[in-house]
Amino acid sequence: MKQIIECVPNISEGNNEAIINQVVSEIEKVEGVKLLDVDPGKTTNRTVITFVGEPEQVCESAFLVVKKAQELIDMRNHHGDHPRFGATDVCPLIPVANITMEEVVEYARKLAQRIATELEIPVYCYESAAYTPERKNLAVCRQGEYEALKDRISVEGQCPDYGPKVWSEKVAKSGATAVGARDFLLAVNYNLNTTSVRRANAIAFDVREKGRQKKENGKAVLDEKGNKVWIPGTLKGTKAIGWYIEEYGIAQVSMNITNATLTPLHVCFDEVCEKAAKRGIRVTGVEVVGLLPKKTLIDAGKYYLAKQQRSLGVSEEELIKIAVKSMGLDDLKPFNPQEKVIEYLIEDNSTKKLVDMTCKAFADETASESAAPGGGSIAAYCGALAASLGTMVANLSSHKPGWDARWEEFSVTAEKGQALKDELIHLVDEDTNAFNKIMNALGLPKKTDEDKAVRTAAIQEATKYAIEVPYRTLQKSRETFEICKLMIETGNPNSITDGAVGILCAKAACVGAFMNMKINCASLDDKAFVNDILAKGEQLVKEANEIEKEYTEMVLAKI
């Protein structure tokens, strides 16, 4: 599965459209990166740019942005309301999907080092990428802003992590850049059935991490140092305030969730609902400002299903639907996940996928004179159907009257089945892609000895991949047996034959995938690899045959 990160560079230009456009145009020079938003501010003289993609490509785009900003922006002439100390003032990387913060930190530090080395820009690492606890705070890195940089750049403890530590004309022009790694910031507004900003603020103060000032007899309480004392709110990693929205005629609690890993959206929603209810107010829904990661909705969907004691092993689409309805994301206007979820926005829809066809169209395409989709794709689809049948029995069992105490047991099985189904669905198209790689390699030129060598290497590489893909299908299909076996043994007895048909589909998938492995192995020169993978495959097929025989006979005997 693709790793996805977001990058949000802030450049110190918010008025000159020509400069902004030139900087932004650098982003999409890198294939696979998608520009999501450009937000210039005139009084701040600053533009916030947002783009996403796979880590290597995003880092390349980020570097190009910094390079172009260095070329076009002269910090010696910059003025604006927002704190700043460089042409590219900040450049944070943010994990979105299938990547850990630790991995993002490594990318951020490599990017920082490259900017400093190749562009000779002083770079401070902040937030999770910081090398010292103090520099986690951006304000510490940017202390005194651009005007103080000249004096700080060579001072021990204040100098940059990478790059020049001496003031020069080049540094005077570019200033410094802060490169960081931070959590995704979720911006949401909770809709209230009131017009009272005072009540909305009270709820915001109840929940936000900072909380509210402590007062006695209407006066602020001070500590021994004369500082105001604050009563913390209930939600860590959140900032919130109340306001009135004339467009909708309601008050809202407006919240930034700065650490959605620590405090997920669904936890915030329930807490705001609870605090609002104590003040006689109801939260009618949530307005999402900007975009959000798919995980936010998937986690919320699972959370609310669990509260209902329903199986969590349902499709991604169903989980998102549950999340939308549970939190009222469509309260004020329609909520379209295809337009609000980052992963959906950056999906490559230029290539027609087999799995997006109707059943009839897929069968027709298979029956056509085209060599693909072939047996490998069909084997993967058989495996997906096996996983689907096992998952169906688990979900039916979870919701069976009288079995309420066992809902979680079946939910765990259904989740495993859904994951296997999704992987095998992916392999349907991946098997066809593997075949196409071989055909592309065979089509390479072979006029010169160099051409022939390149072509032979490409064919071998593509052939190896065309072995590995059906092997993955074989592995995953073998795993589906465990789902179907368990459901035959412990699931809803009325669905025993569904589990049995799943077993048969899984066997067809395993044997079919192994056949595709074996025929491609004949063309691979790496015989050590061939012998090893075929031995593993033969063992899996042996197990598949034994399980299918045992459980088919068991089910036939029972019915």
Fold and architecture overview:
The protein has 559 residues and is an alpha+beta fold. It has helices spanning 17-25, 55-72, 101-119, 138-141, 145-152, 169-174, 197-207, 265-278, 294-307, 316-327, 337-340, 342-345, 359-367, 375-398, 407-442, 449-490, 496-521, 527-558, and strands at 4-7, 10-11, 34-41, 46-53, 88-97, 123-127, 177-181, 186-192, 212-213, 215-216, 219-220, 230-231, 238-245, 250-257, 283-289. The strands form 4 sheets. Strands 1, 2, 3, 4, 5, 6 and 7 form a 7-stranded mixed β-sheet that branches. A hairpin with a 4-residue loop joins strand 3 and strand 4. The radius of gyration is 29 Å and the shape is globular. 42% of the residues are buried.
Largest sheet descriptor: 7 strands, mixed
Please state roughly what percent of the residues sit in beta strands, choosing from under 5%, 5-15%, 15-25%, 25-35%, 35-45% or over 45%.
Answer: 5-15%
| Low-confidence blocks of residues | none
Residue-averaged pLDDT, rounded? 94
Number-wise, the strands total 15
- Total number of helical segments? 18
How much helix is in the residues?
40-55%
Gross morphology:
globular
Q: Evaluate the radius of gyration.
A: 29 Å
Structural class of the secondary elements? alpha+beta
Instruction: Please give the alpha-carbon distance between the first and last residues.
Output: 41 Å
